[in-house]
Amino acid sequence: MERIEKKELKKLIRENVKTLYRKTLENASPEELYQAAVFAVRDVITDKWMKTHDEYYERDAKVVYYLSMEFLMGRFFGNALINLEMFDEVKEVFAELGIDYNMVEEAEPDPGLGNGGLGRLAACFLESLSTLSLPAYGCGIRYHYGIFEQRIENGYQVEVPDNWLENGDPWGIKRNEYAVEVKFGGNVRAVGKGNGEYRFVQENYQSVTAIPYDYPVIGYGNNTVNTLRLWEAKPKTRLDLKSFNEGNYQKAAEEELLANTLTDVLYPADEHIQGKELRLRQQYFFISATVQRVIARFKKKHTDFNELPDKVAFQLNDTHPSMAVAELMRVLVDENDLPWDQAWDITRRVCAYTNHTIMSEALEKWPMELFSRLLPRIYQIVEEINRRFVLELTEKYGNNPDKIRKMAIIADGQIRMAFLAIVGSHSVNGVAALHTEILKKQELHNFYELYPEKFNNKTNGITQRRWLLHANPKLAELITETIGKDWITNLDELKKLVPYAEDAAFRSRFTAIKKENKIALAQYIKETKGIDINPDSIFDIQVKRLHEYKRQLLNILHVIGLYNQLKMNPGLDLVPRTFIFGAKAAAGYHRAKLIIKLINAVADVVNNDPTIHGRIKVVFMENYRVSLAEKMIPAADVSEQISTAGKEASGTGNMKFMLNGALTIGTMDGANVEICEEVGRDNIFIFGMSAAEVQQKTQEGYDPWMVYNMNQEVRMALTSLIDGTFDPDTNLFRELYDALLNGCGGRADEYFVLEDYADYARAQWDIDRAYRDEEKWVRMAILNTAESGKFSSDRTIRQYADEIWQLPSVEIV
Description:
- By secondary structure, the protein is of the alpha/beta class.
- Helices cover about 50% and strands about 15% of the residues.
- Among the domains are: about 300-460, Rossmann fold (3-Layer(aba) Sandwich); about 465-795, Rossmann fold (3-Layer(aba) Sandwich), CATH 3.40.50.
- The radius of gyration is 27 Å and the shape is globular.
- It catalyses: [(1->4)-alpha-D-glucosyl](n) + phosphate = [(1->4)-alpha-D-glucosyl](n-1) + alpha-D-glucose 1-phosphate.
């Protein structure tokens, strides 16, 4: 592989600091040193990048376009160095220059261009595509502000803007030459073609220019550099001078305002109609820009559109990009004069849809009024797709109005985007075996009946390059020393570690590395939170988006239960434990934000109660993000994966913890089911109802008061929410109390927190007992790492490429 000599690298960094900032190394800030280092290695990256795309173009390779509203890439620099196999050299170069490399890496902003799992999965998939030499683009939006930066003030979440572009963007390359126009609003006029057919023309519209910024996605140990293409909106004309000169200043700046707000913020809270409108605009904006660009690229080499499915695959990452079905139809029919039937056949063969949710409320629906006003031509196309689909249903099921209303793309005044994606795609996949089965049997059963051949499962995965090689270098080094380095590109190799669970020397080193990681996290918590935690305690970690179904509330109620036990019985035999949380709640999600306040209120009481002698501690880490996850996950002893069974589609945090030797406490939900299969029931702590039991309980009804009356621990924990124990304002947490017992604006205890509490507490005592046997615990931890091979995103992407996209790899030499 092409490399830079260390001497040359030093020279480049020095020169870049001088050229970019008019400074010397000695007085440059960490941020300036970081940017100088990026520009030093970008030469190597750009050469590979250009070569990759030249090769794709010359070979006329098939390309997959992974369409996603979110890409949570994490910091670029460290990952780029790992995949270029230059990490050690760059670290040495900085050491020789008298600079702490970690300080430089920490100076890079962590772009929050995603809400959580969906965006992080997309990032893992892009990295795997490059590592497997598969031609691919990730396509999304270059939000100026990512998901908010979370601050905790007086225990409450406060959102502040995430201005990741504040100090420039050394990774993105602006591609003005690929700019396209995206149109909103106006009206549609039919123009006769002279042969009895019509062409449809959008008029009186507002438009913006979509400008792509390209970011390199570097494959590990090869020469492939694929592209993450993020679109930014710019006004078509800076200022309508005519309107301005006539004194109509607002109209003059209208286009500029539209463009500026369009890609300003990662899609906003959409409780109000303006929020909904902006989100719909964002979706159409990046989809239209991508589809137009893809077709323009295709036409450079091809005149026959029937070849499009052999050259292009669109993967719709959830319902947000499902507009691609209608936009591709628009471009084929309106702009390239294809007959409808031919265009429809092509569209279905190009598009494939990934469903990421079981919760029907998360399957996007748009009001017809909003959709038709904002996207008049797209609405017409969706109407026609729906008309033809309803005919297909009538043909199959006869005149069955109830069935048709349940399955129609347009019904009850709404456009159902998931249904558009299913009807307009050749493949519909879930993201874990259980999830796919639930889709087939419940949520999408009618569609499974109609199109059984479309449905398939692709269990999610994570990239071991970021989540082990970069996040946990000492463990990675031990593994490489023990079984060789092939695991970096073939995670199944980790199975070779299984016999080492019986090797005392290996166990000892494995334990020492975990301890070092725990000490490092304890120091970070002391520096950032001022809380002293015991590195010998069990580090019990739950990090993910805060949502009621993920049941952070169950976790903190159990902490309250333990605290109450310690207060009543100071001699309670308990292994010291540190409960660590990290989570952002959606800005408009009141109850989730109240749970954050509760966790912090419990932390304040528990951490400052001298009578329990620090035997339990509670820490809420603010602003959970990829770079923080890389500190927390390697230090975890216990991984909390406790969603209500049947609610979590897959989860990927569960895989990251497992890979790093944490033991899972979890329900049989999402990918936990497959983790349990891989590692064996003896090496995981399973509790709670199954998905089938949850469904049955939901249908039959359930009375949480029964649990309250029968279980003293639950009763005391709930009472402490409203008796002033955690806040003198006894009404503050009353809503949580009511939601669990009486149903506050919904079913009582909708996510079965109280129903699963006793079994959860039992599993936690099982953990306490297992941890006391150090040799047993480390064996279990090693087996978790050893059996995590299935959960590499390389395996997932290989399955997508072979079974959905028919995408051959292209080796770049």
